[in-house]
Amino acid sequence: MNIVESTVARIKPVNQELLQLAQRKLDNKTKPPGSLGRLEEFARRIAAINGSLEPDISKKVVFTFAADHGIVEEGVSLYPKEVTSQMVYNFLAGGAGINVLSRHIGADVRVVDVGVDHDFQELTGLIRAKVAHGTRNFVKTAAMTREESLAAMQVGIELADACKSEGVALVGTGEMGIGNTTPSSAIVAAISGISVRELTGRGTGINDAALENKIRVIEQGLALNRPDRSDPMDVLTKVGGLEIAAIAGLVLGCAANSIPVVIDGFISTAGALIASELHPNVRDYIFAAHQSVEIGHRFMLERIGVRPILDLDFRLGEGTGAALAMGLIEAGVKVMKEMATFEQAGVTH
Question: For the chain, what are the domain ranges?
Fold first, then answer.
């Protein structure tokens, strides 16, 4: 049994009784039943995952996984792959969007090199977990070997296990990897059977000609590699990415450790899709941060069975949407814990 199989075996259903008890507690607050809408949903789900009607989710971490992609050779992105490593330095300096928004909601950002085509020195704040110097070009061969995809998933699983030991109670996913909307579109096309054209968007903002090229590249890669839609690991290995694999591992690991995980946009959701295809109970631990501008994102969310919290026309990645959604999830928990009951407030109901 490999680490993915042993992690999947640890995943249990969430506590349905606590879901009901949490809603009963919310209904006794000084408000009409259900009047705080989805904040109440967040609170009862956190209670059920956490195993407590008094959950403490103040310790929050966003993991931003960085990796490069061989498919960039095919002209699928506006930017050269060197931007991946340059942005890692920006994350570590605290200057990126994810740094700003994580500071805003009181979360730590942890940057993970799982596959950047650049050799970083020892840098404060960088988790060095490089599996390879990027993936291969999947129009020529499989993006990864099975061993590489498992190793990248293991990175995420071990980070989730460490979060459990450390008392991290809410985890967010983020990524950085030039070209990574291309493998994400390929993954959802392979698993869903929906046409590549329906699922593929402009990523960082490519023009019409580049979009046509991107669609052709994905179709060519799927035809060459023939990923088995019934085997999520096969799909991930043949057309995925190292950061996508690490996110899949993190999501699995969070589910196995009863930690709620907030997934960011299109690329993070590709990782979560792989994880949820491996075990049906994974979805109960997932909060979908937002609806991305990327057109394939909706299909992924529907396939997993999760409803996005925000719709802000985001398409940055890094974990930015996850950070904002974490603040709303924590707000829901605070309502459940801190709002007065009718009896406490002396209010008739």
Answer: 3-54+335-345, 60-328
DSSP-derived secondary structure for 100-138: HHHHHHTEEEEEEEEE-SS-----TTEEE--SSSS---T
Distances (CA, A) of 192 to 82, 235, 240, 298: 32, 11, 15, 12
Beta strands in the chain (DSSP E): 60-67, 107-115, 126-128, 170-176, 261-263, 286-288
Q: Distance (Å, rounded) from C-alpha 231 to C-alpha 228?
A: 5
Q: Residue 318 catalytic?
A: yes
- Residue 208's H or E segment, with its range, is helix 208-225
Distance CA 4, CA 156 (A): 10
Please report, as a single letter, which amino acid is at residue 285. Y
Give, for all 349 residues of the chain, the pLDDT tens digit.
899 999 999 999 999 999 999 999 999 999 999 999 999 999 999 999 999 999 999 999 999 999 999 999 999 999 999 999 999 999 999 999 999 999 999 999 999 999 999 999 999 999 999 999 999 999 999 999 999 999 999 999 999 999 999 999 999 999 999 999 999 999 999 999 999 999 998 887 889 998 999 999 999 999 999 999 999 999 999 999 999 999 999 999 999 999 999 999 999 999 999 999 999 999 999 999 999 999 999 999 999 999 999 999 999 999 999 999 999 999 999 999 999 999 999 998 8
**The two structure tokens encoding residue 336:** 């459940």
CATH of 60-328 among 3.30.70.270, 2.30.30.240, 3.40.50.10210, 3.40.640.10: 3.40.50.10210
Catalytic residue of the set 243, 294, 318, 330:
318
CATH number of 3-54+335-345: 1.10.1610.10
pTM (2 decimals)? 0.98
Residue identified by tokens 């705080």 is: 36
